[in-house]
Write a structure and sequence with these properties.
The chain is of the alpha/beta class and 283 residues long. It has 2 domains: 120 residues, 3-Layer(aba) Sandwich (Rossmann fold); 140 residues, Alpha-Beta Plaits (2-Layer Sandwich), CATH 3.30.70.270. It has a 5-stranded parallel β-sheet with strand order 2-1-3-4-5, sandwiched between helices. It has a 4-stranded antiparallel β-sheet with strand order 7-8-6-9, sandwiched between helices.
């Protein structure tokens, strides 16, 4: 955290509180922007996403709950940490904020030192990166890295299946991100079913990238999982297209396709963790 100057957006209609927080966090070497209205705060986030939002609930136009929902519903702002700052003390109010994906909730009057620590902690958590894909809810980022470290150190043979959805970006350009997310979500469910039905019962499924999945199982189960995925998911890809487009021939190489490959491992098979990652990510 010491090497980056973080940007905070304070959405607060009380000018005294907004001025106090702005002055305080600027002294802590944060870049601070303020908005007094909810709509202005949403626009500011979408135009230049901050690293964290401190959000009052009672605002002159839309309330903080609506602001939080709109930030969470937008891909560009969905992962910005949000700390609610409010006079509302009821447990139901706190739960409502947390249900909307708030990272923390502080009631007024507040201790500015405590707020500083909570801001720091939220930024530290965010800097670790996501641990679950927001569309499929499968492990990614730090959790997958942690698993790969364990896999490299494993003293028993294993087998990995890398499943890639090719040309999803082209699909997204034609049909939109909502439809492309539906494809990812459906594909992840089919992968989970294949692992459940043909796997060893103690397998790993996660993301190497947003469109590249990793399955790790025992060598005796890998072929059955692969065959099931290729036959079921491979054949299902055409059905993600509208009926009128399924018979079109102008998609060419940009049509959704499935690519799979296996990597087998044993003690000493990979010189280090980077060697293992390169083997999994290679075409």
């Amino acid at each position: 955290m010491e090497n980056k100057r973080y940007r905070l957006l304070i959405i607060e209609d009380d000018p005294d509180v907004a001025e106090m927080l702005t002055s305080y966090f600027r002294l802590q070497d944060y870049d601070v922007q303020t908005a007094n209205w909810g709509e202005d705060g949403v626009r500011a986030c979408q135009a230049f996403p901050p690293d964290l939002v401190i959000l009052d609930i009672r605002l002159p136009d839309i309330d903080g709950y609506q602001v939080a929902k709109r930030l969470r519903d937008n891909v560009r702002t969905a992962r910005i940490p949000i700390i609610f700052l409010t006079e509302k003390r009821e447990r139901s109010d706190r739960l409502k904020g947390l249900e909307l994906g708030a990272d923390d909730y502080i009631t007024k009057p507040f201790d500015v030192q405590e707020l500083k620590l909570r801001v720091r902690n939220a930024l530290q958590r965010a800097s670790m990166g996501p641990v679950a894909n927001p569309v499929t809810e499968l492990s990614e980022g730090a959790l997958v890295d942690e698993f790969l470290t364990e896999l490299w150190e494993r003293q028993t043979p294993w087998a990995a299946l890398v499943v890639s959805l090719e040309h999803l970006d082209a699909f997204k350009e034609r049909y939109g991100f909502v439809t492309s997310n539906d494809v990812l979500r459906a594909a992840s469910r089919m992968l989970q079913n294949a692992v459940r039905d043909a796997g060893s019962g103690d397998d790993f499924l996660g993301h190497l990238s947003p469109t590249r999945f990793l399955i790790v199982t025992s060598p005796t189960h890998i072929n059955a999982i692969r065959e099931r995925i290729e036959s079921r998911l491979g054949q299902a890809l055409d059905y993600f297209y509208p009926l009128k487009d399924r018979i079109r021939s102008d998609f060419g190489e940009r049509k959704l396709t499935l690519h799979t490959k296996t990597v087998e491992g044993a003690p000493g098979a990979f010189t280090d963790l980077e060697h293992l990652k390169n083997a999994l990510l290679a075409p």
